[in-house]
Every structure is written in C-alpha cells, then in structure tokens.
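Researcher: Here's a chain I'd like modeled. Treat it as a single chain, no partners, no ligands.
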Amino acid sequence: MPGPSPRGLRPSLALEFPQSLGMFDKYEDAQRAVDYLSDHHFAVQNCMIVGTELRQVERVTGRLTYGRAAGAGAASGAWMGLFVGLLLSLFSSGSNAFAAILTGVLIGLMFGIAFGLASYAATGGRRDFTSVSQVVATRYEVLVEHKLLAEAQQLLAQMPGRPQQPL
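Model: Modeled as a single isolated chain. Structure tokens:
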C-alpha cells in the first residue's frame, strides 16, 4: 500500500521514490524522451514530467478606461441576463417568452455596466490596464521510480539525437 503523496500531490500524480532521469529545456524534448522509453517497452506509468523553474508571465493587452470597463461589464451582464431570460422563458408562453429574454438581457446589461464601472472606480487608478497571465515552466525534469532508474538510463543513452541534459 503506497504511503502518503509527497508534497500534497494527488495519488495519481505521485511516484513513491522518484529519481531524476534528466532535465530538458523544452517540454517537447522531455516528451520525446518518455515516448522513446515507451517505444522500447519501458513501464512509462512509472515516469513523470515536471515543469520546474516556474515563472508567471503577464502580457499587457491594453489600457483600461471607464469606457472599456463599462463595455466589458455590459458584455458579461448581457450574457448573464440572456441566461436568466432563457430560464424565465421556459415558464412563459408565446410573446411573453421573448419579453422575458429581452428583459433579462436589458437588466443584465444595466447591472453589468454598473458593476463594471464600480469595480474600475474601486481600484483608484492602481491598475489602469488589461492583461492576461500564465504560469510557465522554463525547464522540464523527467522523473522515474528509483527501482527502474538504471533501466531507463540505459535506454535513454541509446536514443538517437538525444538533447544534452546537464544536471
């Protein structure tokens, strides 16, 4: 029976005693190494690719103004209003169904604008831009169960065009 998962990983993501098989600068290279092991009938269910040296990258996409905040709020409010209106239209008949949808969209639009403007005003000008962010790994480590490390190393040493793996 396996022990507790290391560092809080779900049991399906944890290995009991993982050892480093190699470090790779690109995910594709780490994936190619595991694929090579798989092609040579290695028990790849005992492998794990771990992204290391994590960075958060934030790409600034534009300037945020009251107009943009109102527009974004209007769009999200209209979608929510459409959803509520469609639910209400299920209990309406004929032209009342269309009126329920239209009313839901209009009320959602108004609330969306109000909340968009209020949330933008609450920032006090500290965040006058829009952005998207993502956490990315700069290196990838292939780990393997300790009992299979030697076998994996032997197979990987025979891999043609194997990228350098400084440890």
